[in-house]
Amino acid sequence: MGAGGPDDEDNRWPPWLKPLLKERFFVQCKFHADSHKSECNMYCLDCMNGALCSLCLAHHKDHRAIQIRRSSYHDVIRVSEIQKVLDISGVQTYIINSARIVFLNERPQPRPGKGVTNTCEVCDRSLLDSYRFCSLGCKVVGTSMDFQRKKKQSAAAATMASDSEDSYSSSHGGRQKNRKSPVQSFTPSTPPPTSVNYRTAKRRKGIPHRAPMGGLIIEY
Description:
This protein is an alpha+beta fold. The chain has helices at residues 6-11, 17-22, 79-82, 136-142, 145-178, 198-201, and strands at 42-44, 51-52, 65-67, 69-71, 74-78, 94-96, 99-103, 209-210, 217-218.
């Protein structure tokens, strides 16, 4: 993919692809509502005039028409049909009802499965390792210059943030090693001097008392 201008961006894909991806299929045809074949599951690549039912194809003879199918309520197309008119490299294919198909647009997925090592570059859906996109729509978005530019900007911002964090941690870590332990702003208070009871410190001689029965004299 070269770094071209808007014209290159528009010419990268056939003119019918983006309208096809935006189209609503499996709705009732407004021209053949009375027919049991009125379900719109066809698309004319030459006219690009919306979804068609099988009866509408009578007005598109010799045109390139493709059939849209469904899998789990999502629009798909057979690889054998789409690869004739579009490069689908990088888009994961699936086998449904013995036919290999690709999805037209991304499918919501809460989070990648356990042990997944590869995901869609646009919607993060789980993929096999050899693919980049889960659908044709994701390939259109993922290969656009605008998406690639934003992807590079996000990667650069993430790298700058990581480098800044590492630099901050390194500088502050060095300071922590050279920094002395801060002196505590408080010291244990000096205990107050023990009060002295002078009344008990200096004993006064008491009045002598003679013990009964001629015993010793004891001072109190």
